[in-house]
């Protein structure tokens, strides 16, 4: 019996594979190659330019951790910006907070939204919520316009390859901060401590010069390189402010103990960032 396997190779020295039951979507959008696979164990899987973005099985560890930590730190965010996030997973989590009046998703590729809305039904179609607004635009251009302000900004981006590379630059972080209301908080996808330590340190270094309470935290995602990914928390409000808040209902990964533990860094990595750490 022939088996079909999808293999991802983000790094030249590391691969991982998922067994594929069916290819549901395979197309070249104006911006990237989009695959939607039905896989064994992990279920439906979104792949962009050969890199796994999410699966039905393990996405909660990513979407809950990138959203609720800055949302809880703020306490009562009314306006939220999600950079990228066209799959709708981060939007679903943001809308669990009753204080939210508007959540804008700034996504470059409309097809990511359309395909994800059709296939990731467990997200409950957050796009139908009247508080949700989709802006199909480059995030740099959207933020450079300087027209809108937000209480929380979530940078739910792909890896720093091609057009996405500049979303990891100091210039982009400054643009996000310019769009942030006083007391606001930002969380960004910030790569993996084993494979991307130099990039993380570079980002942490310039972020420390921009806000009072930067911090790096991490989560478990079996289908991401190394089995996990990290985030940069960027705010003048310490992340610990969120520990005393009421957590949204219906979470599958995050709880108060996971929240706190996410900021505990393995010793090898803590040493690499020791001179930068503020609240860890």
Automatic annotation (TrEMBL):
Molecular functions per Gene Ontology: spermidine synthase activity
Q: What is its EC number?
A: 2.5.1.16
Catalytic residues, chain numbering: 156
Q: What is one Pfam family matched by this protein?
A: Spermine_synth
Q: What class of enzyme is it?
A: transferase
Top-rank taxon of the source lineage equals Bacteria
Segments forming domain PABS:
3-236
Is Transferase included in the keywords of this UniProt record? Answer: yes
For the ligand (spermidine), the binding residues are: 63, 87
Ordered alphabetically, the record's keywords are: Polyamine biosynthesis, Spermidine biosynthesis, Transferase
**InterPro entries in the record, alphabetically?**
PABS, SAM-dependent_MTases_sf, Spermi_synthase, Spermidine_synt_N, Spermidine_synt_N_sf
The pathway it acts in is: Amine and polyamine biosynthesis; spermidine biosynthesis; spermidine from putrescine: step 1/1
Q: GO biological process: any one?
A: spermidine biosynthetic process
Reaction catalysis annotation: S-adenosyl 3-(methylsulfanyl)propylamine + putrescine = S-methyl-5'-thioadenosine + spermidine + H(+)
| Cellular compartments per GO CC | cytosol
In the UniProt record, does the keyword Transferase occur? yes
Q: What positions does the entry give for S-methyl-5'-thioadenosine binding? A: 32, 107, 138-139
How is this protein organized at the quaternary level?
Homodimer or homotetramer.
Q: What does this protein do?
A: Catalyzes the irreversible transfer of a propylamine group from the amino donor S-adenosylmethioninamine (decarboxy-AdoMet) to putrescine (1,4-diaminobutane) to yield spermidine.
**Which family does the UniProt entry place this protein in?**
Belongs to the spermidine/spermine synthase family.
Record's protein name = Polyamine aminopropyltransferase
